[in-house]
Write a structure and sequence with these properties.
The protein is mostly helical and 185 residues long. It has a single domain, classed as Clp, N-terminal domain (Double Clp-N motif), CATH 1.10.1780. It is built from nine helices and two strands, in the order H-H-H-H-H-H-H-H-H-E-E. Helix 3 crosses helix 8. It is globular, with a radius of gyration of 15 Å. InterPro entries: Clp_N_dom_sf (IPR036628), Clp_R_N (IPR004176).
Length: 185
């Protein structure tokens, strides 16, 4: 998979990433842990946005994952697309090593935490990570969802989740799609 376009400037420091990781609730922690396993599985040099996407897909009961499955984008289909486009193979034995985060993965985690903080929420959930992936239009994960014609489904699922919680959707810059900024009250 070709790396996404350069990220906009901003503080992507390790300290800021650590603060963002510290806000994760149990569902988001499980997704990030699964993302680490995905990166190890592919013997990747760093944890990237596609690993975060694959980690989020592990919880098939999660609302966005459920919508993707209903629209035909099963976790296995998304994994096969990733392998086809990137040339990665999952037969690699997992390795025990610390993996750095790619700039896109850092941006997704930091943006999710910043958004929840801006909404007055102290913990970042899996839906917040989904929203940050959907908003990261230049990231490999968002581009892969777009290639599979699933990015619009992700935005609609997030809007449905937000409506069910009383949040109002806003336009996501550069996409023309409405997604709620605050996933929880």
């Amino acid at each position: 998979m070709v790396a996404g376009a350069p990220l906009p400037g901003g503080d992507m420091s390790t300290a800021r990433l650590a603060r963002a990781l510290g806000t994760l609730d149990e569902s988001a922690k499980a997704a990030v842990t699964a993302a680490h396993h995905e990166a190890y599985r592919y013997a990747s040099a760093a944890l990237g946005s596609v690993h975060l996407l694959l980690g989020l897909l592990v919880d098939t009961e999660q609302p966005v994952t459920s919508v993707l499955i209903r629209t035909g984008a099963t976790p296995d289909m998304i994994r096969r697309h990733f392998e086809q486009v990137s040339g990665a193979r999952s037969h690699q034995p997992p390795r025990a090593a610390h993996l750095p985060y790619t700039p896109h993965a850092k941006a997704i985690l930091i943006n999710a935490a910043d958004c929840t903080n801006d909404c007055g929420v102290t913990h970042t959930g899996a839906n917040d990570l989904w929203r940050a992936i959907a908003d990261a239009a230049s990231s490999p994960a968002a581009r892969m969802l777009a290639e599979l014609a699933q990015l619009g489904h992700v935005h609609r699922a997030l809007t449905e989740v937000a409506h069910s919680r009383g949040a109002r959707p806003t336009l996501t810059p550069g996409t023309g799609l409405a997604t709620a900024r605050c996933m929880r009250h």
